[in-house]
Amino acid sequence: MKSKFCFFMILCALLFVACDNDTDNMAQPQVMKITSTTDLETSLSACNLGDWVVVHGEGLDNVTSINVNGVELNIRDVFREANRITLQIPRELPEGEPTNKIRVNVADLVAETDLAVSIPDLIVTGLDNEWAVAGETVKVCGNNFDLYDVTADAGEVFFGDAKAEITETQATFVTVVVPNGVSNKSQIKVVSKKSTVIAPVLYRDDTNLFEGFEGGFGWAGTDNLVTDGSREGDIAPCNGKYFYMNEVLHANWYIFIANAVMWPKEMWENPENWCMKFEMFTQKPFSGNYFQFDQTHYLWKPEEHGVTNTHGKWQTMVLEMTDVLFEGYTQNPEAAFLFQISLHGGNAETVDIGLDNFRLYRKN
């Protein structure tokens, strides 16, 4: 029994020495340069999140860990060879300060080199429906919400002082439930651990709202197409009464809005700083229909702007005033503007659209 124990101790000692010798025999890893995967000759000094790069050097096939800009990589996600490692810059923010380095480890041996990793900002552009009512879901639009972890667990979205419930997070939007008791013109704020961003638009901003469908339409004769949402088949309103057309359009030219309105003098002087906004819903796809602003002859074709069918959900549309004022249209800013819109084109089939809250918005 004693001899067996002695044999076991000797074997353990030999294994320990062998392992120690293996560590001693490992070559110090060397990092010579970083390149792209498409140009293996030109060195890179900077890159973006998500880029694929190649680490060139020596003794890289035994790498046990890799750290990029303060973020540890899963070693199984890289491609290792003796003289190069191919890896993707992780789309992830470091917990601490960015290191702007790539560091490779072989056991206790370390090699590193500088690589400036560009980290994009958290971007908030607005809401997909600026006039969503309390209790409705709305998308806060922008970019990098996933990168900044704007989630129900780690992020916050505020309408004024009221916190909204986050229900979904994607790279380009966060879906939230509009909280109760939010006032018109409330600020929208997105908060993450790394950043706080104020949206460039306000919630339910009625500044320069010139057509809300609360009155008549003069010579257009389409007052019967205005509803408060109480009729059968109506979509719930976003702001009182709204225009709703649900009928077969036989004519190629149908005037449905015709009112005289006053627009700000500043808009006429610098239309490039302004846009027109309104809310719209559709319950059927557009079939080639387009809107004409009769006074300026501007044609707005929703399909060319990615709008085919909102499936009954109100969405905010944005038109540049330099487009609406077609070919540089201008007039005396002290005079009323003929705001007349007609519907053109398309097949002789049912047009199902709702419109509300035509307003001018100063961009900067």
Automatic annotation (TrEMBL):
Gene3D superfamilies referenced in this protein's UniProt entry, alphabetically:
Immunoglobulins
Q: Which UniProt keywords apply?
A: Signal
Coiled-coil boundaries: none
Pfam families the UniProt entry points to: SGBP_B_XBD, TIG
So which residues are the signal peptide here? 1-18
Question: Does Heme count among this protein's keywords?
Answer: no
Where does the IPT/TIG domain start and stop, copy by copy?
A: 132-194
Limits of the Surface glycan-binding protein B xyloglucan binding domain = 203-360
Q: Which InterPro entries match?
A: Ig-like_fold (IPR013783), Ig_E-set (IPR014756), IPT_dom (IPR002909), SGBP_B_XBD (IPR040475)
> Is Signal among this UniProt entry's keywords?
yes
Entry superkingdom: Bacteria
- Protein's name according to its UniProt entry: Surface glycan-binding protein B xyloglucan binding domain-containing protein
Per the UniProt record, the source organism is Bacteroides clarus
